[in-house]
From TrEMBL:
Domain called DUF6593: residue spans: 11-166
Membrane-spanning parts: 140-160
A Pfam entry, by short name: DUF6593
Organism this protein belongs to: Fibroporia radiculosa
Protein name: DUF6593 domain-containing protein
Keyword Membrane: yes
Amino acid sequence: MALTLSFESHPLNSVISGHSTQGDPSPYYAVYTTSSFTKQSTTFSAISPPSVIAKIEWNSFSPDGIIMDGRTRLLDEVVERGGALGRTIRKFTLPDGAKYKWKSYSSRSLVLLDMYGTTIARSHRAKSGSFGSVKRDMTLVIESPGLAFLDLIVLSFIVAEHATRQRRRQSNHVDHMNTMNNMNTMNNMNTINNINAINNMNTVSNMSMGF
């Protein structure tokens, strides 16, 4: 049976609750992030029984790190980066050699695939509830084969979703800068055209006056 997890807020600062067909949602995980000038620190914890699963250091000037299972490692060693231009956002390998990858999907969602292309988990973006739609938190649906390594799926999803949002912000920033540059170019061209028009008018005026 699949498990549905919901994020009450941003994936780096959220209580993550599990939903079943019976009863109310129950808290599964908590994610808490602090920020400083040079880095962010994210703590990913289980709620019952309470335990810290991993701590991630998002560094501005050095590679990101993770503390997990009592070991300090590079984040890319645990949850590897996908290709810069492809749809694979992050990927990881289990101790038995099984490989999984998070890929971007439609409507700002992510899907986790195994080596054979089988869907293990899928995210569904949040809805604000505007324009008559029903408000909905971001959810992550994990199929039954993924429940055996649930902690790693959720951890890797948090990393992949964070990377996706960073990509989106960078893309929006580039689009904004391109728009501003185009507007500046058009303004400069209009200014040059206006100057040329004034010069032409002055030339015609001088010629008519016999200068």
